[in-house]
Structure formats: C-alpha cells, structure tokens
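Structure ticket #2291
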Amino acid sequence: TTADGRTIAVDRRRNPAPATTAPTVPHRWLVQDSVAYVRIAGFDPSLYADSAVAAIRGRYMSAAAIVVDVRGNGGGNTPMGLMRLLAAGRHAQGLRLVESKLRRDFGQVGGRLESLGDADGYRGSAIVLADRGCGSACEDFVAPFATASWARVIGDTTYGSTGQPVFETLPTGMRFAVAARRYTLADGRPFEDVGIPPHEVVPVTLEDVRAGRDPMLARALAWAREQVGAGRLR
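Resolution: structure written out below.
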C-alpha cells in the first residue's frame, strides 16, 4: 500500500526470462579511425561485456584510443574477457586480496591479477569514464586501469563496494549479502568504502546537464587528442 492509499499487487511468480541474445552496446567513432567510444551500462548479464568485446574486435582494434564509458554501471559479473582484451598482455594488476573474513571458499574471481591480456588483444590506449554510480564488478573492471601507465581514468571516484559477497537466503525467502573478502588496488591503496579515484576529476554541473553537455567525455576526447599530437598514441 502506497502513501496515497493505492494498493499494488506484486506477482513474484512472473520473473522475466533471462537474456539469451547479445544486448545492444552503443559504440561509435569519436574521431574517425582514431578514437572510439563504447558505452556499457551494466555487467549483468555478461552478454553486455561480450557485446563490447565483439564491437571492439569488429571495428576498433586499430584505434589509437578507446573510451569505455561505465558511468552508472552497477556491476554484475566481472568482465574478465573485456579486461584481457584491453590489456593485451601489458602489465596490469587488478585487485589484491588482503584477508578473508569468512572461512569459506569463494574462488578467486576479482583476486590478484598478475597478468591480464590476450596476445592478439587491443594495443592502443584505454580511457575509462567512471563515476559514483560505478560499483561492484564495475570497480573490478576499473581497478587495473587505475594503476596502469597506458590507461586513463576520467570522471569521479567510484562507489567503493565489491568484497565478493556471500549470499544467504532466510526461511522467509528474504535474501541478503555480506562482504566476504577485503581487497585493495594492486598498489596497496584501499577502495572499499572509499572508491577508486580517477586520474582526472571532472565535475559535472547542473548547467552542463541542462545544456546537454558532457564534460567528462569532452575531457577524454581532449586527452586522447593530446596524446596523439604528442606522438604517444598512433
């Protein structure tokens, strides 16, 4: 029953069918044949990351830089395939396990990543757009780029979550999650309850929103052009 007296029925038996086809992931050239853009709104289901990999392999492997926009991405499944593609065998570490708080075996998803990359992966520069809405598996994705010299994270500090939760279901049917692991970035910096800071903080004002401007994306494009002009990117 809502505050205004309306009664709304919720039928819990009618769950939406899981996605079986690859969802649409917006992508385009920002600068033709030089700087590409891929927008990933979530990592659940993992088909979103699979679609991003297909788009990059299909059109943007020759780009000098790829802007990967994960603003507002609440997580899902850690996109290891996408991370390996963008790292392309270059030295990149993800999250470092500090200690386990619960004595259970949760696997090593999101654990220390000594070497990301496919031998035939993308060799250009990765520019990641992140903000406060990026959490959980989205932060797993951002972490390697936050400590990599060949990448750039632009925007705002991320949510500060992850922890590989344990899910428990009560006899009543209610379900809850408890963070079961504590992680830091590869260089030892904490980010749980803190967030992953970008290399460049770019504020967005109310005037920007009203005018339809995207200063974070504009800064990413400007940084890519600066690197190309300086000969750091092809």
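Closing remark: The mean pLDDT is 82.
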